[in-house]
Structures are given as structure tokens and as C-alpha cells.
Structure to design on (114 residues):
């Protein structure tokens, strides 16, 4: 049917315009996080833990929307912040997620470099 994504399971209908409408807030949030984290050092945020959680959610939502490049960029922001905060476990988790996305994108060589 018109407006349905190719390969979408029966009963699931998504139009491109509704996809864009749902993606706009995510893209805006990503842009704000990117701007906040582009400078060196730890950004001035109320709660670094909540910021890490927000970045994880952002990346997960991009993955659910089947937007692996945006998910990859979000996980890279997460990795950067984890490293700045000295959160080794969080950085390892981010690296694992980055590797998964790279493998999904069929870029195993890039995943090995990490």
C-alpha cells in the first residue's frame, strides 16, 4: 500500500510524513546534545548520570527507527562523555553498542579498530 515502508510487517503502517514528524524532536535533541558536548572537558549539566541516560535513550530510539548512522553518532557522543567523566564501564558499553551498529552497517573493519 502507498506510504507503507517496504518490508513492513502486516498490520504496521508508517507513512514517511509521520516518520519525519517523529524524527524531528530526536534530531533536535541530538543537535542540542552535540552542541553541548562539542567543547572539551565535562559540560555543565545538572546531572551527568541523567545526561548519560538521555544519550542512551536517544541512541536506542534512533536504532528503533532504523536510523543506524544517527544511532552511531549518538553512541559516539555517549562514549565521549563517558570518557570525560572517567566512566570506564559506560565507555565499554558505548563501545559495544558502536561495534554492533558498525557490524549492522557491514563495516567489521571499523568495529575492529575500536
Amino acid at each position: 500500500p502507498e506510504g507503507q515502508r517496504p518490508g513492513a510487517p502486516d498490520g504496521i503502517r508508517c507513512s514517511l510524513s509521520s516518520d519525519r514528524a517523529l524524527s524531528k524532536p530526536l534530531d533536535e535533541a541530538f543537535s542540542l546534545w552535540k552542541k553541548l558536548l562539542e567543547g572539551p572537558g565535562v559540560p555543565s549539566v545538572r546531572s551527568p548520570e541523567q545526561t548519560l541516560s538521555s544519550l542512551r535513550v536517544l541512541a536506542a530510539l534512533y536504532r528503533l527507527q532504523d536510523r543506524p548512522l544517527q544511532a552511531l553518532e549518538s553512541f559516539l557522543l555517549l562514549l565521549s562523555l563517558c570518557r570525560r567523566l572517567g566512566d570506564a564501564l559506560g565507555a565499554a558499553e558505548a563501545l559495544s553498542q558502536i561495534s554492533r551498529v558498525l557490524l549492522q552497517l557491514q563495516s567489521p573493519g571499523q568495529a575492529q579498530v575500536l
Q: What stands out?
A: The mean pLDDT is 83. Residues 79 and 93 are 8 Å apart (CA to CA). Residues 48-106 form one domain.
